[in-house]
Amino acid sequence: MAEELDVEILEEKLLSNPEAYKLLKKAVDKIQEREGSVSMLLSKTLHYLSEFSKMEPESSEALRNVLKNMDLKDETIIMIINICPQTLDELRILFELEEKVIDTETAQQILETIKPYCKE
């Protein structure tokens, strides 16, 4: 059985994979320093986030701010950061949660904006 943790939730925030990696890496480092090792679940989750993050954590935070200024919902921003779409068709699918229609010019601008942040 899993051990229950007695923690208080202070804040709830949607995180992209790179942001989650940064926070989990910090926690894993503290646990390793204190206990010498971490659980297999934490280790595998950290590895997954490392492998499937499409950009560096600092880049994702900067891109989140840029996309926020484009008046996109947090859910859409997270999906864009996690997927790093490269075509208009890939990007348009991610606009499903928006309550407005994103025109082609704006979508193209978003693609051009995210390109430098995404890993090749």
From TrEMBL:
UniProt cross-references to InterPro entries, sorted A to Z: HRDC-like_sf, RNA_pol_Rpb4/RPC9_core, Rpb4/RPC9, Rpb4/RPC9_sf, Rpo4
Catalyzed reactions per annotation: RNA(n) + a ribonucleoside 5'-triphosphate = RNA(n+1) + diphosphate
Domain RNA polymerase Rpb4/RPC9 core, first and last residues per copy: 7-118
Record has Cytoplasm as a keyword: yes
Gene Ontology CC entries for this record: cytoplasm; DNA-directed RNA polymerase complex
Superkingdom of the source species: Archaea
UniProt keyword annotation of Cytoplasm present: yes
Entries under SUPFAM superfamilies matching the protein: HRDC-like
Entry's EC annotation: 2.7.7.6
Family, per entry: Belongs to the eukaryotic RPB4 RNA polymerase subunit family.
Functional summary from the UniProt entry: DNA-dependent RNA polymerase (RNAP) catalyzes the transcription of DNA into RNA using the four ribonucleoside triphosphates as substrates. This subunit is less well bound than the others.
Protein name according to UniProt: DNA-directed RNA polymerase subunit Rpo4
Source organism of this protein record: Staphylothermus marinus (strain ATCC 43588 / DSM 3639 / JCM 9404 / F1)
